[in-house]
Amino acid sequence: MLGATRMALTDELVSLSLRPELDPGPEPHRTPLTEMETEMFARRLLQESDGAPLWVFACGSLIWKPDFDAVEWQRGAARGWHRSFCLKMTRWRGSRAQPGLMMALDRGGRRNGILYRLADGDRLGQIRRLIRREVGTIEDAATVRWIRVETAHGFVRALVFWAGPKGERVSRKLPLETVAAVLARACGHMGSCAEYLYLTVKHLEERGIRDRNLWRLQELVAAELLSIHGFSGVTQSR
User: Fold this and answer.
1) Interacting residues of 31 by C-beta distance below 8 A, sequence separation 6+
2) For residue 233, what pLDDT is reported?
3) Do the beta carbons of residue 169 and residue 89 sit within 8 Å?
């Protein structure tokens, strides 16, 4: 962990943000990828990897739930990109009654994250799994790209998901206080936005990375949850 400062957002507070929610199903006006389109997309990315070591740059949930066969990890910095809770979502960790915000990479700045190197065996299958997890629709496929990531050993070319999103769901440059109010309240059938933030910050810290904005955001979300629910006997574990 970095320094002596402990997270304000805790397991106990995160538990207050969780509640049962039904899966509302696919979002309207978006076109799901078919199996054939998924296969074609996976084969294209495999071809673009050009036989070189296949690195995936993780900046959000892929850090703590990679869902692929990683044989190595290292810290890396993506120049020209920064984390941003800029994507409105009404499924997964949000609902149509209480939309959430999902984190993506947006243009500008420099952001540290985790690079995972995938095993060489069944590379196509692993890419296919990543697409099925991260890319649900044809519209979302445009957020998958190759970027240059700086490491302690030089630059590597890495695959990244949810970079440079566009469309009506994108809300850029929201004040952290506004984002915190959403994250503290939004929950879907896969969990809450507060839980997503908590796990991301926690696992970044464990790998020696402190994102200044995310650190401030977890403090704000913790304060929001206490305000919403009152102290209610909640003891924040240290």
Assistant:
1) 137, 138, 139
2) 45
3) yes
DSSP string, 124-166: HHHHHHHHHHH--BTGGGGG-EEEEEEETTEEEEEEESSBS--
The answer for residues whose C-beta is within 8 angstroms of residue 97's C-beta and 6 or more apart is none
Write b or e for each residue in 153-184: b if 16 or more Cβ atoms lie within 10 A of its Cβ, otherwise e: eeebbbbbbbbebeeebeeeeeebeebbbbbb
Residues 6+ apart with CB under 8 A from 76: 57, 112, 113, 114, 115, 149, 150, 151, 156, 158
Q: Specify the pLDDT at position 237.
A: 42
Residue type, 94: G
Q: What is the pTM of this model?
A: 0.92
Q: Is the pLDDT of residue 4 over 70?
A: no
What is the Cα–Cα distance from 170 to 166, expressed in whole angstroms?
Answer: 6
